[in-house]
Design goal:
CATH class of the largest domain: Alpha Beta
CATH topology of the largest domain: Alpha-Beta Plaits
Order of helices and strands: HHEHEEHEEEHEEHEEEHH
Structural class: alpha+beta
Number of strands: 11
Radius of gyration: 23 Å
Number of domains: 3
Number of helices: 8
Strand order of the largest sheet: 2-3-1-5-4-9-10-11
Oligomer: single chain
Strand content: 15-25%
Distance between the termini: 39 Å
Length: 319
């Protein structure tokens, strides 16, 4: 039923585009026949907006990877730098939460570690929505912020870093096997809100996959058993994402290409001082409206990154 609904929505979207195109062409012909330039201008403006929508739908149709239609896990980790980087990590989590809400996605907090003074050391969210992973998968990497620090009494400029890791929520159509001997399970006390039971028992769970060093943690459920299930599901998604990266790196190497896949490289720079600029270092896509980006206006960057990944062509336009 879920797949049927998604297909129905896709078909309906195409039919609406076709109808808008037909109506607009008809209005232009009518306006030209009757000499009504205002009608022609309005129809041409509608066609311009339709062109943008069609380009977006074309990108969405290319999200055909095995897990592209799945929900996603989003993990943000503050880099070195204490309060500065921890505040930046919290700003990033808000940016993605705002983007998800604007698209009608649901966001659930899975695990969070607060900073000593402000911000967060790390946080993991589950983003639920059609093609959430397909859209977010290109956000893996290091995000750099340059600004005048609100925590520096001398008002000096600081550079902060935070890493973002995105992995798919694995459903029954993808089989990931994890042997018990390959994992280590640690329990600890939850640090966030959640009531007396959550805060006084070792209900939070951290699972480490020993062969790869991949870690998944969950603390948002009341029971240790529930948190373990959630953490295991998250671990499967991370291992699947790791395998995808290995495949892409192997393909790039076979074609003699330089690969920058993975979360260890810097992908985007956010400059708030001495000028306003957000620039993606992979595609060249940039905008001077940094406030809008930090408030969730990420579609231009996601679309440019997807087009770059699928076609090999960057987007060097300035928004």
């Amino acid at each position: 039923m879920k797949e049927r609904t998604q297909l129905d929505n896709s078909i309906q979207g195409v039919r609406e585009i076709e109808q808008t195109l037909e109506d607009s062409v008809g209005m232009i012909e009518l306006g030209e026949e009757e000499g009504e330039q205002a009608i022609v201008d309005e129809a041409e403006a509608t066609l311009g907006k339709l062109g943008v929508l069609v380009a977006r739908k074309q990108l969405e149709s290319l999200l055909s990877g095995e897990a592209d239609g799945n929900d996603a896990y989003l993990q943000v980790n503050a880099g070195a730098g204490g309060t500065e980087s921890q505040d930046w990590a919290e700003m990033i989590t808000r940016m993605y939460a705002r983007w998800a809400e604007q698209r009608g996605y649901k966001v659930h907090l899975m695990e969070k570690s607060n900073g000593e003074e402000a911000g967060i050391k790390s946080a993991t969210f589950k983003v639920e929505g059609h093609q959430a992973y397909g859209w977010m998968k290109s956000e893996n990497g290091v995000h750099r912020l340059v600004r005048i620090s609100p925590y520096d009494s001398s008002a000096r400029r600081h550079t902060s870093f935070a890493s973002v890791a995105v992995s798919p929520v694995i459903d029954d159509s993808i089989d990931i096997e994890i042997e018990d001997k390959d994992i280590r399970v640690d329990t600890y006390r939850s640090s966030g809100a959640g009531g007396q039971h959550v805060n006084t028992t070792d209900s939070a769970v951290r699972i480490t996959h020993i062969p790869t060093g991949v870690v998944a943690a969950c603390q948002n459920q009341r029971s240790q058993h529930q948190n373990r299930d959630q953490a295991m599901e998250m671990l499967k998604g991370k291992l699947y994402e790791l395998e995808l990266q290995k495949r892409e790196e192997a393909q790039a190497e076979a074609h003699g290409e330089k690969s920058d896949i993975g979360w260890g490289h810097q992908i985007r720079s956010y400059v708030l001082h001495p000028y306003q600029m957000v620039k993606d270092l992979r595609t060249g896509h940039e905008t001077t409206n940094s406030a809008a980006v930090l408030d969730g206006d990420l579609d231009g960057f996601l679309e440019a990154s997807l087009a770059h990944k699928l076609t090999g062509d960057g987007d060097n336009s300035t928004k």
